[in-house]
Amino acid sequence: MSEPLLQVSNLRTFFSTEEGIVRAVDGLSFTIHKGEKFGVVGESGSGKSVTALSVMRLIEPPAGEIVTGEITFKGEDLLGLKDEEMRKVRGGQIAMIFQDPMTALNPVYTIGNQLIETIMLHQSVGKSAAAEIAIQALDDVHIPNPKVRMEDYPHQLSGGMRQRVMIAMGLSCDPDLLIADEPTTALDVTTQAQILDLMLVLTEERNTAVMLITHDLGVVAGFCDNIQVMYAGRLAERGTTDFIFDDTLHPYTAGLLGSMTRLDEVREERLYSIRGAPPSLIDPPNGCRFRSRCDFAKEICTRDTPLPREISEDHWVACHFAPDLDLIRVKGEPVG
Fold this sequence. Notes:
Layout: E1 4-16, E2 21-33, E3 37-41, H1 48-55, E4 64-73, E5 76-77, H2 83-89, E6 94-97, H3 101-104, H4 111-122, H5 127-140, H6 146-149, H7 159-171, E7 177-181, H8 189-206, E8 209-214, H9 217-221, E9 226-231, E10 234-240, H10 241-246, H11 251-258, H12 299-303, E11 309-312, E12 315-317, H13 328-331
Parallel strand pairs: 3-8, 3-9, 6-7, 7-8
Antiparallel strand pairs: 1-2, 1-4, 4-5, 9-10, 10-12, 11-12
Helix pairs in contact: 4-5, 5-7, 7-8
């Protein structure tokens, strides 16, 4: 395996509120290599987006703060960089696609102006050269008449077209890492598939690593090499896509899989439903944070926090009883 492109160790990102301290990310570690497609999956509030914003150093005190941890990119400590140095990394070497392109794009500037500004900020080119790069970037994401579209404002484009503009903007400076924060959430199913296929082709051509954040395991199934499942700010399970889907070890991951509809089999029972709701991250429970929703919880789960363990090569799980649980029923697979 090559040297890590991004290495996050023991990351803790907290937010101050009137009710107390929100432990949004609480002791998370992971590694992404050059060209890797890395999925981050979990329910809303599991800490996925906060992890991405922490990597980009977009968590600003006093409301939010990276309390502890290390974030190393290409061997350089991002948390130790000055703001001016980090601005060169952000957008140039690490790019991010946000959930809602309508709010991410500036409504009072044309698409062309915003692309040109990004390119000139991170590349040593003039305005005319930046315009040519921007037009090519729009063409790469299959936007018709890219030269004409340069003059359009965000509100003149459909949701799918705006998301293509965000991909063009993210890849225009050839970053080493692209963070995509639920890039298909607001799109219809057909457009979702088109956007994911487009991202996969373009990043494969450039050997760009991707950190794809989503709440839907179906989205990462055909896209990612490795998947990290998060729950309540912590790691639940991490492994290759094959391991996560075929050799599931954590009850939470099994519950997510069991709640998915499948077109390749006839289901006679209702989809599995994970009972309850995620815990408050202001006052999280002792022991395992998933225990109140888990069908397999025992007394030890209320007392001891399960630490991530490597069960097999590159397959990690934070559960006291893995790999000995029978998760077939939870996953909704036929028995026998």
